[in-house]
UniProtKB/TrEMBL annotation:
Primary site of residence: secreted
InterPro entries, A to Z: Wnt, Wnt_C, Wnt_CS
Organismal lineage: Eukaryota, Metazoa, Chordata, Craniata, Vertebrata
Source species of the chain: Petromyzon marinus (Sea lamprey)
Any single biological process term in GO: cell fate commitment
Gene Ontology MF annotations: cytokine activity; frizzled binding
Protein name: Protein Wnt
Gene Ontology cellular component terms for the protein in this record: extracellular space
Length: 199
């Protein structure tokens, strides 16, 4: 169409994908067809597909006083946070697989025969993660009503088992003053700290 040109400065996604295949996948290819190697190769490719699927077209207008007589467009990679959010969603929906022989080659297959096979865009795993919840019994956590409800907050860290609260009373030096010459005098203060631990 008239008034539209492709610029020659697009991100070279094809070259980036090719270089990442030769660089990132080299170690896994040298390890043969173990379950972990096949999983890593698949996930590397899924990551590359996520980057490619988020390539966007950006344009800039040229012309007198803001008119768009000529528009120059180029392909650009999306910001990392956009691709990372997509990969995080893929991670949350990862599919468990096993290695099976198809003909003379090893392939990743669904863990159970009645499951649908994974797609090229899905992330896969071969070993389920251990249950970390059992390791948090007795562990100190942050007050659940605090301003920060992060991963260290009791509801999150204690895996829904609840928590115990206790008051820890300590005596410590406070209100210290320097006395001329060469002495520091302090008072003894009692401090109460609330400690929360997972059940």
């Amino acid at each position: 169409t008239a008034g539209f040109t492709w610029s020659g400065c697009s991100d070279n996604v094809v070259l980036g994908v090719a270089l990442s295949r030769s660089f990132v996948d080299a170690t896994e290819r040298s390890r043969g067809s173990s379950a972990r190697s096949l999983m890593n190769l698949h996930n590397n490719e899924a990551g590359r597909k996520a980057v490619v699927s988020h390539v966007r077209v950006e344009c800039r207008c040229h012309g007198l006083s803001g008119s768009c007589e000529v528009r120059t467009c180029w392909r650009s990679l999306s910001p990392l946070r956009v691709v990372a959010a997509s990969l995080r969603d893929a991670y949350d929906g990862a599919v468990e697989v096993r290695v099976g022989r198809v003909g003379t080659r090893h392939h990743l297959l669904a863990r159970h025969a009645h499951f649908k096979p994974h797609t090229d865009e899905q992330l896969v795993y071969v070993d389920a993660s251990p249950d970390f919840c059992s390791g948090t019994v007795g562990r100190r956590c942050e007050w659940p009503g605090g301003a920060r409800a992060g991963p260290g907050a009791c509801p999150s860290l204690c895996c829904g088992r609840g928590h115990e609260a206790r008051a820890l009373v300590t005596d410590e030096r406070c209100l210290c003053k320097f006395r001329w010459c060469c002495a520091v005098r302090c008072r003894q203060c009692r401090r109460t700290e609330h400690v929360y631990t997972c059940r």
